[in-house]
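Hi, here's the filled form for the chain we discussed.

Project: internal
Contact: R.S.
Residues: 168
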Amino acid sequence: MTIRTGVYPGTFDPITLGHMDIIRRGAKLVDRLVIGVTTNPSKNPMFDIDERMAMVRREVEGIAGDIRVVSFDSLLMDFAEREGANVIVRGLRAVADFEYEYQMAGMNQQINPRIETVFLMADVSLQPIASRLVKEIAMFGGAIHKFVTPAVCDEVVARVDKIGRKGS
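And the returned structure, exactly as it came back:
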């Protein structure tokens, strides 16, 4: 019997309720879900890789299924191959996401045609949520509790307090 392994990659800086929705639903589609926490060189992370790994591990503890949280700093398809994945799980929020993700899926297919990409639409109520916007709202002193769990909210607010708010 072949174990279906999925990889859900992202920076998770911070992990949002939208990410959690995709993780819960993705975990139902595969036997094992590997959450790949990475650093995107084009993004300026609020939390370092170890902090993000700890945050994601804590947040997925109560989700049913075989879920692992692993960091990676390589091509996604190389990481997926190392993890024995046959599926890449990607969340979509809007048409703009689809255009980017469609292009990435095509490139990934060229790199490794044995691994399929599966797109999950975010729950309608969670579609506008993006980590980048959560950080921006927090940096300007706005409330982010509707977009992240209470523990993540506390961590983001504490980090913003440490580095300083904008506009103050």
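Let me know if anything looks off before we file it.
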